[in-house]
From TrEMBL:
The chain crosses the membrane at residues 12-32, 53-71, 83-104. It comes from Canna indica. Keywords: Cell membrane, Membrane, Repeat, Sugar transport, Transmembrane, Transmembrane helix, Transport. It is a multi-pass membrane protein. GO terms for cellular component: plasma membrane. This is Bidirectional sugar transporter SWEET3-like. Its main location: membrane. It comes from the Eukaryota. Coiled coil: none annotated. It is found in: Cell membrane. It holds the Pfam family MtN3_slv.
Length: 127
């Protein structure tokens, strides 16, 4: 698992250099990558402890919404390409954090996660 985190850190350095022209994208990338240390601790302990998955779920839904907003279907042509790329990376990060969380979470926390996910999806579809 440490190999995955080493690759992720190397990828962050490369992407940070690539995105340094746009400070907002670099800041967003760092924001999405911030939980890497938390999930390194989760994988070492093989337990989520008292961590909640709700912030990662909300961040994932935020990335999905902004990625949809940046697509040419909603925006004019590809004028929001940086928005799509950074939030696409955010989707990858947040989905991987949620996957790790669900892998090491006890049954009660998994059940509460599924309940929260269902609630968010119901509100998303109804609005």
């Amino acid at each position: 698992m440490e190999e995955v985190f080493h690759v992720a850190n190397s990828l962050l350095l490369i992407l940070n250099f690539y995105l340094c022209l746009n400070a907002g994208n670099a800041a967003s990338l760092l924001l999405y990558a911030a939980p890497i240390l938390t999930f390194r601790r989760v994988t070492k302990k093989r337990s989520t402890g008292k961590f909640s998955c709700i912030p990662y779920l909300i961040a994932l839904l935020n990335c999905l919404l902004y990625t949809w907003y940046g697509f040419p279907v909603v925006s004019s042509k590809w004028e929001n390409l940086p928005l799509v790329t950074i939030n696409g990376l955010g989707i990858l990060f947040e989905a991987s954090f949620i996957f790790i969380y669900l892998r090491f979470a006890p049954a009660e926390q998994k059940a509460s996660f599924h309940l929260c996910l269902l609630t968010f999806l119901l509100f998303s579809v109804s609005s």
